Amino acid sequence: MTQTSFLAVIRLLSAQALLEQKFSQELGSVHGLSLNDSLLMMHLEQAPLLRLSRVDLAKRLCVSPSTVTRMTLPLEKLGMLGREADARDARLAYVTLTDTGRKVIGAARQTLERKSKEVFKDRWGAEEIENLADLLGRLTASQPNDLV
Amino acid sequence: MTQTSFLAVIRLLSAQALLEQKFSQELGSVHGLSLNDSLLMMHLEQAPLLRLSRVDLAKRLCVSPSTVTRMTLPLEKLGMLGREADARDARLAYVTLTDTGRKVIGAARQTLERKSKEVFKDRWGAEEIENLADLLGRLTASQPNDLV
DNA sequence: GCAAAGTGCTTGCGTTCGGAAATATATCGG
DNA sequence: CCGATATATTTCCGAACGCAAGCACTTTGC
Q1: Which alpha helices (H) appear in A32-98, and where do they start and end?
Q2: A91 touches strand C (CB under 7 A)
Q3: Which residue of B has its CA nearest to A130?
Q4: Residue A29 and residue A34: Cα distance in Å, rounded?
Q5: The model's pTM
Q6: Which residues contact B4 (CB under 8 A, 6 or more apart)?
Q7: E-assigned strands of A3-117?
Q8: Nearest protein residue to nucleotide D17, judged by CA and C1' positions
Q9: How long is the CA B56 to C1' D6 vector, in angstroms?
Q10: How many CB atoms lie within 10 A of CB B1?
């Protein structure tokens, strides 16, 4: 007898692999962003001052701080992200979302929204999608600020 | 107004990153397997003859064929996987699950089941977990054979 | 104040992955 | 039967990641 929780976890992992495969290509070729790049910028988008520290971003994305450093470098050179120091703590190097970055992530979000709709196009009712979103939200509720 | 389908997708991606972070470490240190290694072996486990072709595995795992080649190489050297040719089609090189592999993935599965239970330990009812598993199952239903 | 511990960030190294190209075999159309 | 196309697998190359180490700065305990 297989446990339901195990079944849910396995299916979640499989579903993610499927979604990443479906989204990754167009997101990269059209907007020049990876899926993680987009999530990073979306976190910045909803931050109070359009900025977050690198460790904060690392926790939200569930990646290592070094990954954030390496992710932000090219986006900074492209003018989508900026760097801002903290007046009180000289260790902090905030990642900021520039105007260019806001436009790019806005366009990328539209692509993501369109492809998200495609995922549930067949055999899905509105209340079922909402149900799924709610349940997944409870999984990520333990994490720092929820997205969207 | 944010679309519900978009919300569900974003939360699924975030949840996966969280789960991978929680599972990956112990799975690697205790059983010497990555999460993808485990999924690969679990697919073999439920295959009719304990074997699958590499392209079949690639489709099920949503990874490239080259990744399957690279993943199976070390597991084969450790004696968990084997290689078997097809009598009719000389191109095929089936990946087989050895007795050693069956024992290892069996132990790894127990770890995964235990940690899966931990994920839903608080604030989750049995019917909610089942509901989540069902909904996620519909997402992966379009894929080749479902796991578990 | 000051040494010690803690935190934020970056770099070097090894590992893992996808895409393109190469090889081998199979299937199809004539 | 034979050339053209399709499929299965592997290898090469570049990109992305985690971990450990290191540096800069801050906080804590005395």
Answers
A1: 35-45, 54-61, 65-77
A2: yes
A3: B4
A4: 9
A5: 0.91
A6: A126, A129, A130, A133
A7: 51-52, 81-85, 93-97
A8: A67
A9: 16
A10: 3
- Contact state of B61 with A2 under an 8 Å Cβ cutoff: no
Which residue minimizes Cα–C1' distance to C20?
A: B66
Q: Is the CB of A77 under 7 A from strand C?
A: no
Q: What is the CA radius of gyration of chain A?
A: 17
Residue B104's nearest CA partner among B24, B53, B21, B28 is B28
Q: CA-to-CA distance for B33 and B11, rounded, in angstroms?
A: 26
Residue at token pair 């703590």: A89
How many Å from the CA of B89 to C1' of D3?
A: 21
The pLDDT tens digits for A82-141 are: 999 999 999 999 999 999 999 999 999 999 999 999 999 989 999 999 999 999 999 998
Q: What is the pLDDT of residues B98-107, one digit of tens each?
A: 999 999 999 9
Please give the Cα distance from B50 to B126 (Å, whole number).
32
